[in-house]
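Hello everyone,

My group is preparing for a crystallization screen and wants a predicted model to guide construct design. The compound we'll soak is pyridoxal-5'-phosphate. Before spending weeks at the bench, it would help to have a computed complex in hand. I've included the protein sequence and the ligand's SMILES below. Output in C-alpha cell form would be ideal because that's what our pipeline reads.
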Amino acid sequence: MIGILIRMMNKRSEMLSDPPVPAAEWGVDTQLTHWGRDPASFHGLVNIPACRGSTIVASTLEEWDARKRPDNPMASYGRFGSPLSRAFEQAVAELEGGHAAIVFPSGLAACTHALLSIARPGDHLLVTDSVYGPVRSFAQGVLKRLGMEVEFYDPLIGGGIRNLLRANTRVVYVESPGSITFEMQDVAAIAQEARRVGALVVMDNTWASPLFFKAFDHGVDISIQAATKYIVGHSDALLGVATANRATWELLRQGAHDFGQTAGPDDLYLALRGLRSMGVRLRQHQAGSMAVADWLRGHPAVDRVLHPALPGDPGFGIWRRDYLGATGLFAVVLRPISGAQLSRFFDRLQLFSIGLSWGGFESLVLPVEPPPRSLPPSLSGPLVRIHIGLESPTDLIDDLRDALDGIER
Ligand SMILES: *Cc1c(COP(=O)(O)O)cnc(C)c1O
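Reply:
Good plan to model first. Here are the C-alpha cells for the complex, ready for your pipeline.
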C-alpha cells in the first residue's frame, strides 16, 4: 500500500525497511519513466493525480501523530507537502545525485531562497559575473540590504577563485554555462577552493538539467533547477527546485520552510509529467542545437556563435570533460548592422518567436541589449540568444537562412 513513494522516502528518513529499489543502476530513461510514481497507492493509476488540499484531517489522535511524522508524504497541512511535491522532489534529488530536494513556485524563488537559507549578515558572497540577471539584482539589492557583501567574479576564474575567498566567504554561486554569454565554469576547481575555507557552492544547473551535468560529483552543495525550463518542457508552468547534499540539506529545508513557499498541484503535476519525456526531448533539443549552431557558424552575417559544445568554442574543453550532453540554448553575435536591419531579421523569422522563458518545445530568439560586459570588445554586433525547440532542424535552418539573408536586402 505504501509503495514506491515511501520506499523512496527512505533515503531521507531511513525509517522503513523495504528492499531498496535498484534504481541507481537503471539507465536514465528508465529512471525518468519510473521515479516519482506510485500506482499502488492510487488505485493503480499510472500517474499521481493532481491532489488538491490545504487541510488534512485525522479522526484519531494516533493518526494525527502519525501525520506529523516528517517522513509522511501526505503530511499534516498542505503547505508541508503533498504526494505530488514529495514525489517530484524525490525524483529530482535522485536525478541530480543529491540527498534531498525542495520545490519552489519558480526558478528564481529556488535561487533566492537557496541563498537566503544559508547566508547571514556579515557574510561575503562570490557570485559569477555571468549570473542570471534577476539573481544579480537580488544579490545587489536584497542581500546587500540584509548586510551581506556581494562580489562578482570572472566566470572563467577556475581555481584562481582562491585569491578572492575570505574567511567569511559563505557562498560561491556558479552558473555554467552563463545563460546569455555561455562561458563554461570549472566547477570542480572552484568547489575545491571553496571547500578549503568552508564556503558552500550553490549552482544554477538549469542549462544542463540534471541529465547532462552531475553537479554533486563536481563538489556542488546545492544544485538549482528552473524546472520551468526543461523539466516542465512545454511552456505551461513555472516551478523551481533546489537539491542539497546531506550536509547542507537541513539548512536548505529549514530556511525554505520558514518562508512558506509552496507550489500548486497543477504545476507539480505538469513537472512530473515533463520528467517522463525529458530524455527524448533533450536528445532532440541537443541534435537541433548542434545542427543549427554549426550551420550558423558558416553564415557571413554571423560574427561568433557562443555554444560550448561546438569544437573550437572556448568552453568546449570543459564541456567535453564534465558534461554528458548539450541542450538547446546558445547565442550568436551578428556582424555590426543597423537597427532597421536587426528589426528585419527578427520580423522575417517565421518559426522563432521573441521570448524569454526557454526550455519549451518551441524555438525562440531574444535580442540582448545592451550586450553583456563580459563579451570581448572585438564583438561589437548585436547579441541574439537562441533556443532550439523540438522542430525539425532543417526547417529551423531554412528559417534562419531566410532571415539572415534578408538583412542585406
Ligand atoms: C529562467 C531561469 C531562471 C528562473 O526561472 P523562473 O522559473 O523563470 O523563475 C533561473 N536561472 C536560469 C539560468 C534561467 O534560465
